[in-house]
Write a structure and sequence with these properties.
By secondary structure, the protein is of the alpha+beta class. It is 51% helix and 13% strand. The chain is built from two helices and two strands. It has a two-stranded antiparallel ribbon. Strand 1 and strand 2 form a beta hairpin. It starts with a helix and ends with a helix.
Length: 61
């Protein structure tokens, strides 16, 4: 049983790998894909970085 759970966890880790996640366990909301900067889908790090960079540059203008 433990070996099967480990394989499931490894598959879940691969699905989550490469995306930006929010850890809101302190507010009992769990861990979920980051929804900052107006995005509605899971973001890769590069997509998140581009959103953040565009947002930061627009604040300077």
């Amino acid at each position: 049983m433990t070996e099967q759970l480990n394989r499931i966890q490894e598959k879940l880790d691969l699905l989550r790998h490469g995306y930006i996640w929010s850890d809101d366990r302190g507010n009992d909301a769990g861990i979920y894909p980051s929804l900052e900067l107006g995005n509605e889908e899971k973001l890769s790090f590069l997509d998140w970085y581009e959103y953040w960079l565009d947002s930061s540059l627009s604040e300077l203008a």
